[in-house]
Fold:
Amino acid sequence: MQATTTARTADTPDALWLCTHPATFTQGQAGKPEHIKQLGSIPLVQTDRGGQVTYHGPGQLIVYPLINLTRKKIGVKAFVAALEQVVQTLLADFDILAETKEGMPGLYVANKKIASLGLKIKQGCSYHGIALNIDMNLEPFERITPCGLSGMTVTQWREHAALPDWSSICDRLTTHFCQLLNYTHITRYSQESPWHCPTSP
Structure:
């Protein structure tokens, strides 16, 4: 993401990367050591995104929007709200009612966090993004204070609705993203993962 963003020009197409990660804790730039309890054998990676510490692992969908916000003429707050709405709409498609909370980026179901959000904006372009818990082992979240929210309980898709196949999830999310942010053309391709789906403006 960093290399792609650094190499971008005014003509570089925007992209939406969808993937999963192996078990990893990531710490944002403002991360506080006291939010890390016991990592065990899971590595901690320092990142340049906003936010605190969170966990990534198999069964979690990672959504990385690499968007030229300046060209798109959208501010950071509006972009964050749009990303939340994309995931909120996706979940609603499967009868999962997710809500946003003022000052607490991400999505919540019955006051439990189902999606985390952290971005980095460099030269007017975004990277990092959203992590949506779908069908994963949630135990590692107990080793940290997720997103710095003391007492926050984490949840996932399979606790609230039947699980569709991952292709359906990725297709619907990409469709909602393009509709909400007014992308009229999409080119799909795979690299290391079948969920790497760039979009073109």
Observations:
- The chain has one domain: 12-180.
- The first helix runs from residue 2 to 6.
